Amino acid sequence: METRIVKGDAIKDKIFNDVKKEIGMLKTKHYGTPGIAFIGFSSIPLSTYTIPYHVHLAEDAGFNVLTEIKTDDTSEVELFELIERLNHTDDIHAIVLFQPLPPHLNPIRMINKIIPEKEVEGFHPQHMLTTLMPDIKPSLYPMCLPTALMELFSEANVKLEKDQEWVFVLDDEFITNSLTNMVVKSSASKVVPPDCVVTYINKNSSHLKSYCKKADILVVVSKYPEYIQNDWLKQGVCIIDVYSNLVKEIPSKNNPAQLSPIIRGGVNVDSATSIAATIIPIPGGLMTVVLPILFRNALQAFKNKCGVGKFNSVF
Question: What's the rounded Cα separation, in Å, for the pair 29 and 24?
């Protein structure tokens, strides 16, 4: 079987260019400049790469960017105070708190502190509630993860069929982490058709292999690189890898004095080739599309404040 490897570069470039163009247009019409704040922790794996990358792309798109890099000993009170200050900073329209947080900080409490108007990933409890129960009221912004996945499905012409079995494999800490758990379930509520079977299973379960074998759609959220084995897979499965892991750093080809990250998800793409029908890999897949959608939501936060129209959403 020929396996389709679905990358997100084309979608990323299109959304990014649309955002950049609209920011330029808003500036010429004197609406001002959208501002985005990034809060991260220096000791978190990949932060030395992901935070500068976010900052670079945000600045390139035309955002005013504020970056706050905190140490692991930052207290809850200190982080609350920073978020509260940004909540009341008029020229900051979006606040992004990089995950994961140091263990002593509760992620759902931290995200809840960001006012919904400035929380643009869809992680705020109010946003997740309206994602899960849209009849309550419309969401301020489409949740980044499921929106990115639907964009990828559409671009690659991936067909979701009746009665497919969806299996979500999560590490124990992702299941017990209230934020991650709700993000996965909220995302699933938007993506999985209502007539499908959905199973959430701990990576440490003794039944993991048998559940993977049943999956028509296998979603893997794991800090264990390339953990899923090829003999666990059903022929023709669609694999969606979600979590980025820093495996090692090597000298850059362009500049050997600089290091470049080697990033892997929970699935070994090479070993799954010829078994899976479709793979949305790490790196290059889902998370490549999440970032420009985050920027699109951040721009929408600015437009909401200015009373300007909305972007079209896939939902």
Answer: 9
**The two structure tokens encoding residue 307:** 């009373």
CATH of the domain at 185: 3.40.50.720
- Is 154 within the bounds of a domain? yes
Q: Which candidate, 186, 220, 188, places its Cα nearest to that of 108?
A: 186
Alpha helices in 62-204 (DSSP H): 76-87, 107-113, 125-132, 144-156, 172-176, 178-191
pLDDT at 313 over 80: no
Taking only the tens place, the pLDDT of each residue in 238-288 is 999 999 999 998 988 888 878 888 999 999 999 999 899 999 999 999 999
- Burial 227-239, CB ≥16 within 10 A → b, else e: bbeeebbbeebbb
Contacts of 214 (CB under 8 A, 6+ apart): 165, 167, 234
Q: Cβ distance 153 to 4 under 8 Å?
A: no
Mode of pairing for the β-strands spanning 197-202 and 278-280: unpaired
